[in-house]
Amino acid sequence: MKKLLVAILFLGVFISCEKTSKKPSLEGSVGNTNTIKMVVDKDLWQGRVGDTLRSILAAPVDGLPREEPLFTLDQITPDKFTGFVSKSRNFLSTKLGEPSSFSIEEDVTARRQTAVMISGEDEDAIIEVFKTNKDKIIEAFKTRELKNTQARIRSSLKKTDSLKATFGVNMRFPTAYDYVKKEKNFFWMRKEIKRSGNMNITVYEVPLHAIDQDTFSVARIVRMRDSVSGANVGLNQGRFVTELSLAPQLFESEIDGRFAWEMKGTWEVRDGRLMAGPFINYAIRDEKNNRYVVVEGFIFSPSLDQRDNMFELEAIIKSTRFLDK
After folding, report:
1. Hey, which residues does 170 pair with through a beta bridge?
2. Which of 5, 198, 203, 269 has the fewest CB atoms within 10 Å, i.e. the most exposed one?
């Protein structure tokens, strides 16, 4: 009996220790899209360190008709980074007077959070650490924002049965988008922006040879895009075309594990009232079916900033999944 009581007492102490040793559950992170809380001393922020951080993290976004920063930077001193503010979804912290170091951490003070930690013995050291790792930093924050946007989209999804049946792909986009056109080889979805324009997604396919030729060039994708979109996207009876004078940018990319050409630039309507805006276009290579599936997002919203809306379109496009693996 005595041994039994000792065993029960030991078990109770063990369970109590287990409970107290567990970390308290973290609250969810907060923050606006593409915003980084910059936990930096005021003197550093107003000097060369701040200039360097801003020159890279707040550089103009490619492919937008007017200048907007890559990220919105919100500076705060370390002593103020407490409580609710510390739950920021993205933050970058600098420490002066310590050995040079760099790390990217997840869920430090909140769930679904990305934190970048930089330290250096002096300003030059901090700047060097940041510049050396700037691509990793941008990628980490962009990945976090992409996941956050896609999670928000998943909360209210549009049915995509017809998209699956026509193109053999699935895509996650919100119920706020309506089908404007559903034809044999062209789908067009649109979301109205209250009093200020609309956001659009188009899906179509072209044979591999329409893009893959011995003398590949940006112009070939531009011509392909203008031909298909120009024939199917009606905007005030004008001709929907790519603005060649602003030289669309072309990159190699990947969606659903497949090679893709990514093109960014601006579109305009010719022979109609003046309309223009940004677009992002992905031509996804599907060798098994001898085709490219082309998914594009574009915006007409002349009175609003367009960075975050374009980011939503990019997040939707990157959710594309092929049913025929």
Report:
1. 321
2. 5
